[in-house]
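Board notes (copied after class):
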Amino acid sequence: MIQAFRETYPDMSISSACKTLLLSRSTYYSILHTPSPSTLNPRGRPKTQTTYNFLREEEIPDKEVISEIEEILSQKFVLYGYKKVTAQLRRRGYLINHKKVYRLMDEKGLLLKKFLKKDFFKKSQRESSEEVKAPDQKWSLDIKHFKTLDGSKGYVIAVKDCYTKEIVSHTVSRRHTAKEIEEVLYSALANRNLKELPVEELYVVSDNAKEIKSAMEELRKIGIKHVRITPYSPWENGEIESFFSCLEREVFWRFEIGSFEEAEELIEEYVGFYNNDRIHGGIGYKTPKERYLEFVTRESLVNVSG
């Protein structure tokens, strides 16, 4: 009633309005500032209609926030739940909590359908964060098989740094012999400027595939340690398993891949996204590139101050 009256008579003074409605001024203000049921959340608190953005130094209407959420989710490989969307909004300057993001996404039907995250991923990531304190201490290696719509078969061979979560090197190949695996590992060493041999304090974790064991025989000659997981215990190599799980959900489940060449191009693009743009909850919602640069910068400052 109050709101309708004010809209009908916008020029009327507060005193005149109170007299007309037979209300005291205190009652008038009390009713005026009481939120309607439609603006309350389930706990009875008012639902905010704006969100402050400190980079723009202004309150942003939630309609615009929702548009930004939709823009984030529209990016090619993005498959984010509300927690990662919250992190992305904060990176854009929004002072917003995950509960509000959940509500906005829920109202617009934007919530990601839940999938079961295998416990060994969580266990492996927790153990990795406890034992690995720097890049190039522990790498995780594995091979993934795929098949395209035209019947072509292929393999993704990848090496992941367990500290930065970065795919240090990879290849998409029609074969997965020891030769291809060796080439990926030597490429990883070159990418991290580890050309001065022997390599110390680096060990590679893998399963017991004969091709990997054969390739690692060569790498052992330059000082790299090889740790093989217990048979049928994929959680012991959960870091690379986690990457391949992401690759499966965010690429193979979502895109129709007609040929080996299409797969090669798409996977190459995805790895670039994974390393440079995809935020990872296990490293504080940073990208692997940011994690690596953060470490390098910190070490440089320590060396300078020392």
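Comment from the instructor: DSSP finds twelve helices and seven strands in the chain. Strands lie at 50-53, 58-61, 138-147, 153-161, 167-173, 203-206, 225-228.
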